[in-house]
Amino acid sequence: MTSAEARERTLLHRIYAFVEQQLTDPGLSPRSIAAAHHVSLRYLYKLFAIGGHWGFSSAAHFSRAFRDEYGVPPAEFRARSAIPAALCTDRQRGCTDR
């Protein structure tokens, strides 16, 4: 593995961890993920194509793996975990009122 490939793989692992931590955020999107990691949206998509090389060949494959692990598909998990806007409006500090 070249040093460039190692950097891409490390970044991809950071992005996967970020997504897992942010799954309950209704604002989670490819654009917000790219911004949080200081990469372009195009580069983010390239990284996920590389990610397919390491195990998740498609969004459907990821969704099945997620459902197998957590018992619900990612979209349902996010919908169940969404915090009503009336309870939490300060995304900077996070929400502690549930």
Tell me about this structure.
Helix 1 crosses helix 3 and helix 2 crosses helix 3. The chain has one domain. About 5% of the residues have low confidence. By secondary structure, it is mainly alpha-helical. It is globular and about 40 Å long.
Q: What is the total domain count?
A: 1
Q: Can you count the beta strands?
A: 0
Radius of gyration: 15 Å
Measured distance between first and last alpha carbons = 46 Å
Given the structure, what is the number of helices? 5
Flag low-confidence runs: 90-94
- Topology order in helix (H) and strand (E) letters: HHHHH
Mean pLDDT: 75
Helix content: 55-70%
Largest sheet entry: none
Strand content: under 5%
Secondary-structure content class: mainly alpha
Shape: globular
Provide a compact summary of the structure.
The chain has 98 residues and is mainly α. The chain has helices at residues 3-22, 30-36, 41-53, 59-70, 74-81. The chain has one domain (3-81).
Explain the layout of strands and helices:
Blueprint: H1 3-22, H2 30-36, H3 41-53, H4 59-70, H5 74-81
Helix pairs in contact: 1-3, 2-3
Notable characteristics:
mainly alpha, 98 residues, 5 helices
